Amino acid sequence: MTKAFLGIDTGSISTKGVLIDEDRTIIARSYLWTEGNPTNAARRVVDDLKSQINPEDVEILGVGTTGSARRLVGAMTHATVIKNEITAHAVGTTYLHPDVRTILEIGGQDSKIICVENGVATDYAMNTLCAAGTGSFLSSQAHRLGLEVEEFGDVALTSKKPANIAARCTVFAESDLVHKIQMGYPREDIVAGLCKAVASNYLNNVGKGKKIVGPVVFQGGVSKNAGVVHFFEELLGQEVMVDPDGHLMGCFGAALLAAEASHTTKMEEPFDWNVSKIEFKTREVECNKCANHCEIICVYQEGKLIDSWGNRCDKGEIKAKK
Question: What pTM value is reported for the model?
């Protein structure tokens, strides 16, 4: 019987999951689109992981969740650990790269930078307000140019003179892109210009005021774009490492945290692989017991309240019956 730990990272664009064994080795991995439904995405990820193993031979000793829907997915999976993205990414990256000093991360709709000293995150910054320079931005521009986003990086590397694209804002970037197309710029120069603008925009905004010290690790879906990696290295004047599982670092960190917590926190009941067949519903309740008027989210499993959050004081606490 293999003893394992499950980690799930639910983001706005994609939902990721891994299973790791007691040696902290990934034995199953999944990367699927969230499609606006984090509950269903988490179910599909669990099903995908289940299909890669024999569930009768694997015992889940702990579950960790992270990402924007970590509380919801944590309630669904009876997670033993629920952590924010900064913690999960730092834990996962420092485990694989103990000497890392700076973590660059660009996801589907947000970006973050984490500064590390002696294996501990000491500073960070996030950009969640503008989609310029994120995975969704690159994807939309790729389609405009008649390319698959997976081709973007390789095409960019063929350019000898990247076009100057103003990517501080999605609207300006698209306007500039259309102008360059109309002016007859070669497609590879426009693609390279977009990749360079993404790296430059990140360093001037998310990385502003941060001391970027090597070794540097780049992760998130955009790290698979060789063009963006190239321009990060060019602008920073140093090597930028990309781990093969860099896009899974959040869920890997969550699984590691669950493994660490298993020494003191046990699962209340065996993990149910058939989570896709269990009915979950959420309901919003407005608390009127004080001036805060908190909006409390309640999660029900088969009609039974299993968790709630959103209250800013004890008056609004809604407890699930054990």
Answer: 0.81
